[in-house]
Amino acid sequence: MKSALITGITGQDGAYLARLLLDKGYKVHGLVARRSSDSRWRLREMGVEADIVYLDGDMADACSVQRAVIQSAPDEVYNLAAQSFVAASWNQPVTTGIVDGLGVTHLLEAIRQFSPHTRFYQASTSEMFGLIQAEQQDENTPFYPRSPYGVAKLYGHWITVNYRESFDLHASSGILFNHESPLRGIEFVTRKVTDAAARIKQGKQQELALGNIDAKRDWGFAGDYVEAMWLMLQQDKPDDFVVATGVTTTVREMCRIAFDHVGLNYRDYVKIDPAFFRPAEVEVLLGNPAKAQRVLGWKPKTDLDTLIRMMMDADMKRVAKE
């Protein structure tokens, strides 16, 4: 039985990845920081909460990270832990830098010292491209991050490359473009839209305030993307891969799909609020997943229409129970 350690296991990707690994027969450990609120609801939604071995720890604390690596004796480590909300990174730039940047070093150093055979996955992000330097971004596109989140993630990405090249670790990074699901946090724009559409349809909300609805993103399904993470660690050689759909869509069009699903016209309810615009806006992100398709044999299975309708159905049921 293989052993895996997932940091950020209580997040969207962590829950989907945990289920994938358990289905493949892994013993799954999850690094979990102590919180007063319920942080395991996504794992319950996936039906895997009782199947995880939980380890106390925090990415900002090197000792607890080392202890988790030693206790789990992992064949594979998936570092999904992050302060992952871009807007919040402007309000918490230091915390974002510590967790999303320095925390990666804590984990890599623990692997180097105590478990050098372990294969490591780093969750990088399309936000590292920021002010895009190419119409479609691939593994060779220069980075130009436009937020503390993007900058911190870029540190995590490059420290992974450096540990791979300096210490011969099997360390790979997945440069994932936007990926969503019914488990996505309500603060993210996709869930913000589907939740609002469900509430407006059921008379529990009157309008939806958004920022730049003409921003373009490459959206996929988190359940598809965690498979790419696993595939990276099954390769003979570590490498970096863009994981994306190769299709870009505006926030406006995503709103249309969501509201259409419940028989509403988004134009009647979506209001533009300048307060939601970023200090340094990222207008377009569009990934080129050709390398992932060629090397990993990975392709996305879920288009945006299907994804948004899946999220709408889940939010309609949830809101109706409130």
Automatic annotation (TrEMBL):
GO terms for biological process: 'de novo' GDP-L-fucose biosynthetic process. One of its GO terms (molecular function) is NADP+ binding. Signal peptide: none annotated. It comes from the Bacteria. Residues 5-311 form the NAD(P)-binding domain. Its cofactor is NADP(+). It catalyses: GDP-alpha-D-mannose = GDP-4-dehydro-alpha-D-rhamnose + H2O. Keywords: Lyase, NADP. Its EC number is 4.2.1.47. Belongs to the NAD(P)-dependent epimerase/dehydratase family. GDP-mannose 4,6-dehydratase subfamily. Catalyzes the conversion of GDP-D-mannose to GDP-4-dehydro-6-deoxy-D-mannose. This is GDP-mannose 4,6-dehydratase. It comes from Pseudomonas koreensis.
